[in-house]
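Exercise 7. Given the components listed, write out the predicted structure of the assembled complex. Treat all entries as one system.
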Amino acid sequence: AQSVTQPDIHITVSEGASLELRCNYSYGATPYLFWYVQSPGQGLQLLLKYFSGDTLVQGIKGFEAEFKRSQSSFNLRKPSVHWSDAAEYFCAVGASNTGKLIFGQGTTLQVKP
Amino acid sequence: EAQVTQNPRYLITVTGKKLTVTCSQNMNHEYMSWYRQDPGLGLRQIYYSMNVEVTDKGDVPEGYKVSRKEKRNFPLILESPSPNQTSLYFCASTKGLGQGAYEQYFGPGTRLTVT
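Answer.
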């Protein structure tokens, strides 16, 4: 069955430190992969996406993610975290031809001053 | 401005009282869907619609109904709400199938509490 796992429920980093959020997926074919961010009380905003081609994708707000087929992973990274990055982050995979997104459980990022 | 709107944003109701959450998009998107978000579970799809008059069940459709009479609107109906439907609901839309189908635009969410 198709699934997405975000192993870290909660992560705390200091402002200015680097960040990596983990995402592992289970999907039979080449996946369409996404990272969304949800700020408190807000909807979901697309950070970046991977469909094919270059396995390192750049997104908004200085985020990037790397698709590693051998590890079934799509980890999100940022070199230097800002206090405004505190939010919940969701990894998702696009499933079949229904347009459905299968989401991971989410990772809450806290940023220390 | 391209957007997906939902109303109401917050709703407290009682068990069994029928309610409707509206969703509207102004991007002429064919595909729309509803998700619910629960702590520790991420978002799960309730229903989706590929076009007018075409709807289908997602992963958690029990207790919900939808309709798609116009392209821009996709209301979510709870005929007899129960406390286990207390959740944060998101409407989403996208152009259609293919790669672009998965670039979904999300509404701001509706927080529903059923007592």
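Discussion: The first strand of chain B starts at residue 4 and ends at 7. The two ends of chain B are 36 Å apart (CA to CA).
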